[in-house]
Design a protein that fits this description.
- The complex is a heterodimer of chains A (307) and B (339).
- Chain A has eleven helices and nine strands.
- With 307 residues, chain A is α/β, with parallel strands linked by helices.
- Chain A has one domain: Rossmann fold, CATH 3.40.50.970.
- In chain A, the strands form two sheets. Chain A has a seven-stranded mixed β-sheet with strand order 2-3-1-4-5-9-8, sandwiched between helices. In chain A, strands 6-7 form a two-stranded antiparallel ribbon.
- Chain B has 339 residues and is of the alpha/beta class.
- Chain B has two domains: 173 residues, 3-Layer(aba) Sandwich (Rossmann fold); 152 residues, Rossmann fold (3-Layer(aba) Sandwich).
- The longest helix of chain B has 15 residues.
- Chain B starts with a helix and ends with a helix.
- Classes of the chains: A alpha/beta (307), B alpha/beta (339).
- Chains A and B meet through α5 and α6 of A and α3, α4 and α5 of B.
C-alpha cells in the first residue's frame, strides 16, 4: 500500500477535504471578528494535510479517533459533519454536543476530543485496549502537538501501550509552538527518541504534502493494525493562524516563509483547475448555507435533566 | 462467625467477575500471590488472568486508561492502592471522567468504579493515612460511596459496578480486618439499626429504638465504630441518647436520613476522618441549616481531623484524628447549648 499513487478520485477527495477544513476555520474566524461567535476556538489553518492525510487511512465505522483542543480538522475529516460542528461552536441547537462541549469537546460516533493537553493520551490507550479486547481489528488514533510532549502522562501512556501491546497510533503534529512558546524553549533532546525509549516504532516527516502525509500515516496505521502494537508518527507542520484568535506574536516573515509550503498550495496539483474551482464553489455554498442555518437556529437550551 | 470486611469485598469481586465478563480490574501489585496491597483482589488474577491487569506505578494514566475502557463498553474497576494517590489522577477525574457524560450531551456513560482505601491509625504517616474523599465530593458528575463496616459491602460494590455513573468506592484500611457487622433482626449489638432504601443506603442506629433522642451524629466509612462507641458512652456516662446515621453515599449527598433523624433529635454533630476545613461535614451543615433550620436547637458541630498532617507516631496520630472523646464532648456541649 505504501507509496501507492492515488487514484484521481482519491486525490480530489484529499484536496476537497483540506479545502473544506481551511474554509470552515477561516469562516469561524470571520464570524468571531463579526461578533457572531462567543467563546474560543483553536484553528489548524496550515496543518490541514495532517487531518486529511492521516484520517484518510482510518475506517470511521470501527476505528477510534481522540483529538485535542485543535480538533476541527480532525473532526471534519472523520465525520464530514459541518453543521453539527458549526452549531456546536456557535452554541446553537443542532450542535453535535448540544452546545455543552463547544469547540474543544466533541463527540460523535467513534470521535472524541478533550481540551486538557495530554489527558487524552491514556484515554486513547484505554480505548485501544477496549478495541483489542473486542478483537474486531479496530485501532485508536490520538492527535497531540509538540506542546503536549511536556506532559508526563504521555510517557506513562507510551510505556503502557508498548508493554500491553495496544493498537494505538500517536500522531504528533509538531508545529513548533506550544501556544506562544517556541519548541526550542520547551523541548529538550529528540522527539522520536522519546518513543523509541519505550520500544515504540516511530517515524518523522517534515512535509505538508498530503500525499506524503498519507503515505507516512498508511505505514503507521498498517503497523498498528498488523502488529497490534503502537506507532508514534511525528509530522512537522506549521500553523499560520494564531494559537487561538488574536494571540500571535510570531515574526510575520517566519509565517510568510512558511506560507510557501501551505498544504493547499503544495496540493494544488492534485486537481485540475476546473476541479479546483468546482470544489471551491461547492465548499463555499455548503458553508454559506451552514452559516445561514446556524444563525437562524435557536440558541442552545438546557434540556430537562435526563437523570 | 461473621466475615471480615476485606473478605466480603474479595468475595464480591469474585462474584462480579463471574457474572459479567465486561468487568476488568486494573491496579498496582494485583497479581497472585500478592493479590493487592490489602489483599482485596486475591485470587482474581489466577481465575481471570486476562481480565486482571497489573499496572506500572502510573496512576495518572491508569485513571485515563480505565476511562477509555469504560467509554468503549467495558466496566473497569480501578484499584488505587492508597486513597492518598487519587491526587495523582485528579486531572483525569475532574476534566474527563466526571465530565464526559455531560459535555458529550448525555450520549456516553463512564461505568467505572475506583476502589481505594482511606484512613489512618496504622502509623503510615502524612501521605498514606489521609481521608481525601472531600476532594471528590466537590466534583459534580461522579458518585462517591463510602460504606461502613455495617453496610452490605459486597452488595454495594456490585451496585457500583452496575452503576452507569463513575463511582468512587471509598474503603477504609482498618475496616478490612474488622467483622462486617450486618444488622440482624434490626439490630447491631445492643443498638437498633434501620437501613434506607435504594442504592447505597444509609444506616440509622439508635440506643432507643428510634424513639426520642437528644442528638444525631452523622458519619460514614471508617468513623462508624467511633460514632457507635461514642453513642454507647453517651448513654452510659451522660444519659444522653443519640442516633447515629452512617451515610452510604456522599455524592450526590444523601441528606434525607440526616433530616429525618434531626426531626427527632434537634441537634447535629458531623463526624469524619478527613480534615476539618471544606469537609463533608461543612457541606452537610450548610444543607441542613438551609433545609431544616426550624428543627435545629443549636449550631451544627463538626468533628474531624485537625487541619494539618496526619503524623506517623501513634501518640501524635491519635491527637490529630477524631476519637470517641471528641464526639462525646461535641454532643455534650450541644446539649448544654440547646438543652
Amino acid at each position: 500500500m505504501n507509496g501507492q499513487a492515488p487514484t484521481g478520485s482519491d486525490a480530489r477527495a484529499l484536496y476537497a477535504r483540506m479545502r473544506l477544513i481551511r474554509r470552515f476555520e477561516e469562516t469561524l474566524l470571520e464570524l468571531f471578528a463579526a461578533g457572531k461567535l462567543h467563546g474560543t476556538t483553536h484553528t489548524c489553518i496550515g496543518q490541514e494535510a495532517d487531518a486529511a492525510g492521516v484520517i484518510s487511512c482510518l475506517e470511521p465505522e470501527r476505528d477510534v479517533v481522540v483529538s485535542n483542543h485543535r480538533c476541527h480538522g480532525h473532526y471534519l475529516a472523520f465525520t464530514d459533519d459541518v453543521d453539527g460542528l458549526l452549531r456546536e461552536v456557535m452554541g446553537r441547537v443542532g450542535g453535535v454536543c448540544g452546545g455543552k462541549g463547544g469547540s474543544q469537546h466533541l463527540f460523535a460516533g467513534n470521535f472524541y476530543s478533550n481540551g486538557v493537553l495530554g489527558s487524552t493520551v491514556p484515554v486513547a490507550a484505554g480505548m485501544a485496549l477496549a478495541e483489542r479486547e473486542k478483537g474486531g481489528g479496530a485501532i485508536a488514533t490520538v492527535f497531540v502537538g509538540d506542546g503536549t510532549l511536556g506532559q508526563g502522562v504521555v510517557y506513562e501512556s507510551l510505556n503502557i501501550a508498548s508493554l500491553w501491546k495496544l493498537p494505538l497510533l500517536v500522531v504528533v503534529e509538531h508545529n513548533g509552538y506550544a501556544q506562544s512558546t517556541p519548541s526550542t524553549l520547551q523541548l529538550a533532546g529528540d522527539v522520536e527518541s522519546r518513543a523509541r525509549a519505550f520500544g515504540v516504532a516511530t517515524s518523522r516527516h517534515d512535509t505538508t504534502d498530503v500525499l506524503e502525509v498519507r503515505a507516512a500515516a498508511r505505514e503507521g496505521v498498517d503497523h498498528v493494525r498488523s502488529t497490534g502494537t503502537p506507532y508514534f508518527l511525528v509530522l512537522d507542520t506549521y500553523r499560520f493562524s494564531p494559537h487561538s484568535k488574536g494571540d500571535d506574536f510570531r515574526d510575520p516573515e517566519e509565517i510568510a516563509a512558511r506560507r510557501l509550503r501551505d498544504p493547499l498550495v503544495v496540493g494544488e496539483g492534485l486537481v485540475s483547475d476546473a476541479e479546483r474551482e468546482e470544489i471551491s464553489a461547492g465548499v463555499e455554498s455548503r458553508l454559506a448555507e451552514a452559516v445561514e442555518q446556524a444563525l437562524a437556529a435557536p440558541l442552545a437550551a438546557q434540556e430537562p435533566a435526563a437523570r | 462467625m461473621s466475615v471480615r470486611c476485606g473478605q466480603a469485598l474479595n468475595a464480591a469481586l469474585h462474584e462480579i467477575f463471574e457474572r459479567d465478563e465486561r468487568v476488568y480490574l486494573l491496579g498496582e501489585d494485583l497479581l497472585d500471590p500478592y493479590g493487592g496491597a490489602f489483599k482485596i483482589s486475591q485470587g482474581l488474577s489466577t481465575r481471570w488472568p486476562d481480565r486482571v491487569l497489573t499496572t506500572p506505578v502510573s496512576e495518572p494514566s491508569m485513571f485515563g486508561v480505565s476511562a477509555g475502557l469504560a467509554l468503549r463498553g467495558y466496566r473497569p474497576i480501578l484499584e488505587i492502592m492508597f486513597g492518598d494517590f487519587i491526587a495523582l489522577g485528579l486531572d483525569q477525574v475532574v476534566n474527563g471522567i466526571a465530565k464526559f457524560r455531560a459535555m458529550f450531551d448525555d450520549r456516553v456513560t463512564v461505568p467505572l468504579v475506583v476502589r481505594t482505601p482511606m484512613g489512618g491509625r496504622r502509623g503510615y504517616g502524612p501521605t498514606h493515612s489521609q481521608s481525601l474523599e472531600k476532594l471528590l465530593v466537590g466534583v459534580p458528575g461522579i458518585t462517591v460511596v463510602a460504606p461502613s463496616e455495617c453496610h452490605d459491602l459486597g452488595g454495594m460494590l456490585a451496585e457500583a459496578v452496575d452503576d452507569d455513573e463513575p463511582v468512587f468506592f471509598i474503603e477504609n484500611k482498618l475496616m478490612y480486618g474488622r467483622p462486617n457487622r450486618r444488622p440482624e433482626g434490626g439490630r447491631v449489638g445492643d443498638l437498633s439499626c434501620s437501613e434506607g432504601e435504594g442504592r447505597y443506603p444509609a444506616l440509622t442506629f439508635s440506643g432507643n429504638g428510634l424513639g426520642r433522642a437528644d442528638a444525631t451524629i452523622v458519619t460514614y466509612g471508617g468513623m462508624l465504630p467511633v460514632a457507635l462507641d461514642a453513642a454507647t458512652e453517651l448513654i452510659l456516662e451522660h444519659e444522653v441518647f443519640t442516633e447515629v446515621v452512617a451515610l452510604g453515599r456522599l455524592l450526590p449527598l444523601d441528606l434525607e436520613p440526616v433530616l429525618d433523624s434531626l426531626g427527632r433529635t434537634g441537634s447535629l454533630v458531623t463526624l469524619e476522618e478527613g480534615t476539618l476545613t471544606g469537609g463533608v461535614g461543612a457541606e452537610i451543615a450548610a444543607r441542613v441549616q438551609a433545609e431544616a433550620w426550624s428543627d435545629l436547637n443549636g449550631p451544627v458541630i463538626r468533628v474531624a481531623t485537625r487541619d494539618g498532617i496526619v503524623p506517623a507516631a501513634r501518640s501524635l496520630e491519635d491527637e490529630a484524628l477524631p476519637g470517641v472523646e471528641d464526639v462525646v464532648s461535641a454532643v455534650t456541649a450541644l446539649e448544654r447549648v440547646g438543652g
